[in-house]
């Protein structure tokens, strides 16, 4: 069994999204102790937006005329696609930055779209596979809150990973993660703690679901 994990937080210590992914990964490994975990960390090793430009322009350039940068970019896109297609299950940990996704994650998606296997018009290349989206939001965006609708990341990621790529995507979501360090959010700390506990419970349950469904798919 092979699990692909993608991290995006700029923080390696104290990252709630990484912690949730750790919980989901541990649950998956509990079911598949000999499983292989392939990781890509866009927080510590980000993709350059210029790689996407080079990959796009390579698509309209005859192979013999491509620059070194274009060849490197198309090779990178192919490796990113391979990492996903070779996985039995996927975990994506994602913080909410400026009400949207981190820039390297958007570049990751854009590069995947340049690979023929993920190009527009391809039919759900990850159909039949399970995924966990472990997402952390510093504020609160639930219905009825002052910033309801300000989370532009989660619906978009669900649309891309689920509806376009075909992952059966399960979410583990922690909100109000900034409450412990922002004095103005002090009254929200009990809610933040509860949200974090609930998110870890969800991540554990989803990690086990990934493991069992992957086993069924492989049988």
Helices and strands in order:
Elements: E1 2-7, H1 16-31, E2 36-41, H2 49-58, H3 68-85, E3 89-95, H4 103-114, E4 130-136, H5 154-164, E5 168-174, H6 189-218
Mean pLDDT: 95
Order of helices and strands: EHEHHEHEHEH
What's the Cα radius of gyration? 18 Å
- What is the number of beta strands? 5
User: What general outline do the C-alpha atoms trace?
Assistant: globular
Largest sheet at a glance?
Answer: 5 strands, parallel
Low-confidence stretches: none
Computed structural class: alpha/beta
- Strand percentage lies at 15-25%
Share of helix among residues? 40-55%
Number of continuous helical runs: 6
Please state how the strands of the largest beta sheet are arranged side by side. 2-1-3-4-5
Distance between the termini: 11 Å
Task: Give a verbal description of the structure.
There is one protein chain. The protein is α/β, with parallel strands linked by helices and 219 residues long. The chain contains 6 helices and 5 strands; from the N terminus they run E-H-E-H-H-E-H-E-H-E-H. The chain has helices at 16-31, 49-58, 68-85, 103-114, 154-164, 189-218; strands at residues 2-7, 36-41, 89-95, 130-136, 168-174. The protein has a 5-stranded parallel sheet with strand order 2-1-3-4-5, sandwiched between helices. Helix 2 packs parallel to helix 4. The model has no long low-confidence stretch (mean pLDDT 95).
């Amino acid at each position: 069994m092979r699990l692909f994990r993608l991290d995006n937080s700029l923080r390696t210590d104290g990252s709630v999204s990484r912690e949730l992914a750790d919980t989901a990964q541990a649950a998956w490994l509990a079911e598949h102790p000999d499983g292989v975990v392939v990781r890509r960390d866009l927080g510590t090793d980000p993709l350059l937006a210029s790689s996407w430009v080079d990959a796009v322009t390579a698509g309209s350039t005859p192979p013999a005329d491509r620059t070194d940068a274009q060849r490197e970019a198309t090779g990178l896109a192919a490796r990113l696609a391979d990492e996903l297609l070779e996985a039995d299950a996927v975990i994506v940990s994602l913080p909410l930055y400026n009400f949207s996704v981190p820039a390297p994650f958007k570049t990751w998606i854009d590069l995947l779209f340049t690979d023929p296997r993920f190009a527009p018009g391809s039919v759900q290349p990850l159909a039949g596979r399970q995924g966990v989206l472990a997402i952390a939001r510093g504020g609160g965006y639930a219905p009825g809150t002052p910033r309801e609708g300000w989370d532009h990341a989660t619906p978009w990621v669900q649309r891309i990973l689920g509806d376009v790529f075909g992952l059966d995507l399960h979410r583990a979501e922690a909100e109000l993660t900034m409450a412990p360090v922002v004095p103005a959010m002090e009254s929200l700390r009990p809610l933040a703690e509860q949200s974090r506990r609930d998110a870890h419970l969800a991540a554990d349950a989803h990690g086990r679901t990934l493991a069992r469904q992957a086993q069924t798919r492989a049988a």
